[in-house]
Structure formats: structure tokens, C-alpha cells
Amino acid sequence: MKILITGATGLIGKYLVQKLKENGHEIVILTRKKTGKPNEFQWNPDQNFIEDAAFENIEAIIHLAGATIAKRWTKEYKKELYSSRINAANLLKSYCEKHQIKLKSFISASGINYYGTFTSDEILTENSPIKKLDFL
């Protein structure tokens, strides 16, 4: 399968690319800074730009890119965390529509938190209810 990946140079992305290649998949990487590899294509979500050639014969997209979580989460930065992921996903969708690409899969992953951010001695399980609504 030919898979287009955003965030392929990040912690999870590097490992995922390696494993997908080991399993025989062809990988196309969207990156802001090309290194000259033939499977890399440039994109800039802030400018709504992706190299059209990146979409040639792709069957799936794995979207891992987004603003770094390693910064102070101010009210303003939380907006950037959110919009960097949503806007980039919408850009990928619009390019697929533009090129009339029928994907087999579109996977978008981001940090999540189900139970809420808090400290407790209580052990939570999959059956535990949400304890606190917060940003994540």
C-alpha cells in the first residue's frame, strides 16, 4: 500500500515509517524541510500548500503532524495546538478532493486524555467515568 504520512520525522512517525517499510508498504512523507529523499514532498499547512505530486497513487494517509506539545500551554498556545492539527487535516482532505483520491484509510492521531488531568490515588480502568473535563 502507498501511504502518505505527516509528522514522519517525529518520535512516533520515525518508528512508524520504519515498521511500515518493513511490512512492504511504500511511504510518502510530507515535510516542511526536504532533505532530498525521493519520497519526500514539501508542505506548509499555514500557507495551505502541498506539492501535488505527493498524492500520486496514494491509498492511505496517516496524519501525525501538529504544533509541539513541548511548550507552555497558554490559552493562546492551546488554540495553536488545536488548529495546527485540525487545519492540516482539513488541508489533506481538500487535496484528496481536488485530486479525486478515494482513500482506503485516513488516520489522524493526536494526544488524548479521557479521564481528565488530575492527581489521585484511585486506579482508573477502561470502565471508569470521566473524572474532570479539561483541554485534552
| Category from helices, strands and their pairing | alpha/beta
Report the helical percentage: 25-40%
Query: Total number of helical segments?
Result: 2
CATH hierarchy: architecture: 3-Layer(aba) Sandwich
Succession of helices and strands: EHEEEEHE
Unreliable stretches (pLDDT < 50, length at least 5) are none
CA-atom Rg in angstroms: 17 Å
- Give the DSSP E fraction (strand runs of 2 or more residues): 15-25%
End-to-end Cα distance, whole Å, is: 32 Å
Shape: globular
Q: Within the largest sheet, what's the order of strands? A: 4-3-2-1-5-6
Number of DSSP strand runs:
6
Give the class-level CATH name: Alpha Beta
Oligomer designation: single chain
Could you say what the CATH topology is called?
Answer: Rossmann fold
- Count the domains: 1
- Can you identify the CATH superfamily? NAD(P)-binding Rossmann-like Domain
Key terms for this structure?
single chain, 136 residues, alpha/beta, Rossmann fold, 6-stranded mixed β-sheet, 26% helix, 19% strand, globular
Q: Please, could you describe this protein's structure?
A:
This protein has 136 residues and is α/β, with parallel strands linked by helices. The chain has a single domain, classed as Rossmann fold (3-Layer(aba) Sandwich). Helix content is 26%, strand content 19%. It has a six-stranded mixed β-sheet. The longest helix has 24 residues, at 75-98. The radius of gyration is 17 Å and the shape is globular. The model has no long low-confidence stretch (mean pLDDT 88).
